[in-house]
Amino acid sequence: MGATVIAYLADHFTWWDRAIAAEVCPCCGGTLRWHSQRDRAAWTHFLHRADERIPLLRVYCTHCKNTHTLLPDFLTPRHRYQTPVREAVVTGAESAPPCCAQTRTRWRRAVKRVLPDVIHQVRSWLLTEAPPSPRQDQRLLTVAVRGVEGLRVLCRLAGEAGRAATASSLFGWVNREFGFALPEFL
Fold this sequence. Notes:
This protein has 186 residues and is an alpha+beta fold.
């Protein structure tokens, strides 16, 4: 649902219709229907005020009677900064992050702690499910792949295997395509 705030806001009602048709309840797998909408802040480098908000879809499961909020790719539950901003801070691409040093350190520690497991799971999928790749790429899969750059290599290989990155960030792609989030970060 929308890789960026601008893309999401331009056509969020279409995103919502597609999401209701495609998504199932995360609790029971039941059918979802439209319930309501709510607004939420989505902080970026330029958007620091919580009074600038975006609309989010709330859905209701007809089976288990739970209500869920569907988030676009650039948002994560319980985090005010967008996923691409947090990823830029963790990878070092962000030169002047919009948050305090303690927050940046917490984000980096959380990713560093779980990144090896995520890399292992993505690499396992590539070795078992993806079609054979060129010899050089096979060698990359068998040697030690570490850190965010290693995850980028696996993202490229997954794209060549037909699982192209569709989210707005690398970590969002891992969460959306493979179903495992980086805990405390995503």
